[in-house]
Amino acid sequence: MLINHSLKKINPNATIVVANNRQVIALKKTYQKQSQNNSYQIPKITIWQDFLTNLYHQLESPPFLISNTMQFALWLEIIKDESLTKKALEDYKLIADYNLKINSKLVDKKFYNWFNQYQQKLQKENWLDNNKLANFLLDYNFEKTDLFFYGFNHWTTQQQQILAKIEHQELKHTPINPTINTYTFPSIDDELLACAIWAKNNNDKSIAIVVNDLKEIKHKIILTFDEVFKCNQQFLESYEKPYNISLGNPLSEEIISKNLLSLFDFAISFAKDNIQPKLLQNILLSPLIKQYSTEQELRATASNHKSFSKLILTKKEVLEITKDCHIINNILQNLPTLNDWQTTNNYQQWQQFFNNIINLFEFSTETYITNNNELALNKIQTVFKQLNSLQPLKHQLNANEFLALFKQLLEQTIFQTKSPKTNIHILGLLEAQGLNFDKVWFINFHQKSLPAKVKKPHFIYYSFAKTQSIPNITHQSCYKNAEILLKDLQQLSSDIRFSYSKQNNESLQQKCLMINWEHNNFIQEENKKPQKEFTEITDNIAPKIDNKKIKQGVKILSEQAQCQFKAFSNRLRISETIEEEIGFSNLEKGNIMHKVLEKILPEKTTKETLQTLTRDDIKNAIRNEINYYQKKQTIKNIETKRLLHILQKFIDLELKRDAWIIEKVEDKQSVNIKGLEFDIRLDRMDKVDEKTIIFDYKSSANKSANLLLNTPLKEPQLPIYAINKNVQSIAFICLTTLEIKYIGLGDLVPFNKGKPKAMKDWQEELSQTSIDFQNGLASVLPTKDICKYCNLKSLCRIEV
Question: What is the pLDDT at residue 481?
């Protein structure tokens, strides 16, 4: 792995700034290979942020440069929400990188307030953050040095200003006119197998396998390459393998990190008397927990206890399940109480608190862990100690805020296991740029590979953002950047091949249209399996499902309850044909409304703060979302007017409710229904007189409380959330041009006339529906109305 440029004339005292860490390694190897300097001295090769930090340290008495973790902590202290903080920091980086001049009319009002509070804090303490470092350095002059830049194909506004101020040279790779071959495979498995065999046959040369969506298929790549290179037979660790895959992952994705975070989540839920069975199962089956080998059989037996069929366990039930596992049971009885978790402490106190939990479980002290896990554990311990850098903040915080910071640090820290010395490198698209190899194979280049999707800011209004020089902000800029990236990638080698597969798992794929497939080679399956004889089957029972993670969401349970065949059809991956509409489709209208409501009614909104919301605020939020769609301006204006009318009426109605506060917005939860795993997203949760009501926004009026009471259950999302949380009421908020109404169960439903309908216990019904789906029940026995909008009539052949 080298770069294609002559470095012989570069002085060993020079500085070379590169775009990524791969290029650092490649430049060092190239310089050492080309250099005739026997002292082995090489230039200082660094990435952009480290280059700026080195300039900062040359200054006398500069402001205190805060770490990225400290920056996150400051924003979290202001926003009080981990998810919103991450989104706000993404937009803050855009503002800094591209010197965006913002005001309350160009960004969301809440974000503008957060932004100003943060800037005031920095000014008050005389602090500086990494996002503003480049702008700060523009006011200073630095000594002239031999300075070179390599590997950048896009410069931010800040970077351009630094380059204009400092004398430098830009290193360009020597142009290559590559030979390019293209290949199509029947399936992703065939494509990966062919690539692995090709790599093995060419392992005497420098090879790169550049993978689109590396993260998505990384596990499949490792399995395939391990099989071809016989790694499994030799029980090789990653640093001993004959290939190197990527530079690393966020530390948060390592198994040992997930185990530790799961342990903390369990300890919190145990104190709250609200334990997900999966968390307890993780504790019982983890070899990282105290004296696992001593109680292994007892813990395995406990993990199959009949109570695991429940959605939520109580503390009493957990102690009963673990009564024969004396070591675990004793640990549980010594865990911190709810009062311990609900207190506020400084950073040092919380460090000690979580250390005590780790010591109580004797986490990872007994087990024989791999070299890779040992390295990861050492890295986690280093990260935990880094929280000491937050001491200058001196403020009190709760346990959730401290954990959010720890998780953020794990996500920011890239963990790299010891890399093997090999000629075969498996890389992602961006980290491959600027390198040079003997041979390169680009795999998985299907229709969604290039160009990238438009990336909208979270709080910066899109109408403003798209006028700036931000990459991938419009479809045009996405295409332009894709052309630049593709041109750069085709300079990696003189021998290049592109490929894609027609099928990935059960999804059909098409070729990437930005690549010339004119002289394409279609590779048939090499070892075609013999045709099996036809077997007569009963077609109302399908094979049991293997993958219990349901991507389609809880609508599967609704369909299973109303028509088993319709639920089963999701396993066939049938794509519904969507006719092109001149205006906005119902789906688009619903998505826009949800996005706007998330902006104008964020978490912590109260009836009092809502009174400050103006008609212009609502209109700006609507326009920001609508401008994302490629529609005629007349159509956008009509939809803006319609939405403004609905939302203004809704806000007026919200102001007539009794006092309330929004606790959560767009809250994502993972739930387990009798073995099936779903991700659900709650539109809104309110607190009213210390009680909880949850809402689901609907853009249609034909909803009634009976949808939540009748069998089969047609709207399972709110009930599922309700039985996983302590919720007293659930309701739909129907938002239409004709009327705004609240429909639901429980005594907290606003403007409920007559005696409120009580909530029911949905657990048994949902559990049975889940079991039926897993067992493959697929009878064509639809309930009333389910066939009305169904597109499967040619398959089920039922007359309605």
Answer: 93
On whether the CB atoms of residues 699 and 736 are closer than 8 A, the answer is yes
Alpha-carbon distance of 224 to 133, in angstroms, equals: 45
Interval 420-432: pLDDT, tens: 788 999 999 888 9
Query: 691-698 and 729-735 as β-strands: parallel, antiparallel, unpaired?
Result: parallel
Angle between the N-to-C axes of helices 68-79 and 399-412, in degrees from 0 to 180, rounded to the nearest 10? 140
Place of tokens 């539109």: 683
Tens of pLDDT, residue by residue over 578-587, are 555 568 888 8
Output the CA torsion sign for 244, 246, 250, 255. negative
Structure tokens given for 489: 């990638």
Q: Which residues of 542-569 are buried (b: 16+ CB within 10 A; e: fewer)?
A: beeeeeeebeeebbbbbbbbbbbbbbbb
Question: pTM surpassing 0.70?
Answer: no
Asked whether the predicted pLDDT for residue 559 surpasses 80, the reply is: yes
Question: What values do phi and psi take at 497, rounded to 5?
Answer: -135, 140
pLDDT for res 563? 86
CATH topology of domain 586-767: Lambda Exonuclease; Chain A (3.90.320)
Would you state the pLDDT for residue 530?
43
Quote the pLDDT of residue 755.
67
Task: Locate 162 and state its tokens.
Answer: 């630094």
Q: What is the CA radius of gyration of the chain?
A: 29
The pLDDT of residue 63: 95
DSSP 3-state of 643: helix
Please, what is the average pLDDT of the chain?
A: 87
- The neighbouring-strand residues paired with 64 are 127
How far is it, in rounded angstroms, from Cα 597 to Cα 698?
Answer: 12
Distances (CA, A) of 27 to 8, 19, 205: 12, 11, 18
Return the beta strands (E) in 52-205 as ranges: 64-65, 127-128, 147-150, 169-171, 179-185
**Could you confirm whether domain 181-248+420-522 is CATH 3.30.300.130?**
no
What amino acid is encoded at 358 in this protein? I
Lowest mean pLDDT among 73-87, 234-248, 307-321, 607-621: 234-248
Any idea what the Cα angle at residue 545 is, between residues 772 and 782, rounded to 5°? 40
Residue 397 carries which DSSP code?
B
Q: With contact defined as beta carbons under 8 Å apart, do 199 and 225 qualify?
A: yes
In angstroms, the CA 331 to CA 796 distance is: 55
**562 close to 713: Cβ distance less than 8 angstroms:** no
In order, the DSSP letters of 444-479 are --BTTTSSPPP---SSB-HHHHTTS--TTSSHHHHH
pLDDT > 90? residue 69: no
Domain boundaries, the chain: 15-58+142-171, 67-126, 181-248+420-522, 252-415, 586-767
d(CA 2, CA 30): 5
Q: Is the Cβ–Cβ distance between 731 and 770 less than 8 Å?
A: no
User: What's the pLDDT tens digit per position in 111-149?
Assistant: 999 999 999 999 999 999 999 999 999 999 888 889 999
Question: How do beta strands 439-443 and 495-501 pair?
Answer: parallel
Give dist(CA 315, CA 275) in Å, integer: 7
- Residue pLDDT, tens place only, 633-679: 888 889 999 999 999 999 999 999 999 999 999 988 888 888 888 88
The residue among 369, 366, 382 whose CA lies nearest residue 415 is 382
Confidence of residue 577 (pLDDT cuts 50, 70, 90): low
Nearest CA to 68 out of 456, 383, 355, 470 is that of: 383
Tokens 């004793």 -> residue: 330
Would you say 184 and 501 are in contact if contact means Cβ atoms under 8 Å apart?
yes
What pairs with residue 324 in β-bridges?
Answer: none
Identify whether the C-beta of residue 178 lies closer than 8 Å to the C-beta of residue 205: no
Confidence at 31, pLDDT banded by 50, 70, 90 = confident
Residue 503: both structure tokens together: 């099928």
Judged by phi (left if over 0) then psi (alpha if -120 to 50, else beta), residue 643 lies in: alpha
Indicate if the pLDDT at residue 16 is higher than 60.
Answer: yes
Cα torsion at 274, 277, 279, 285 (round to 10°)?
A: 150
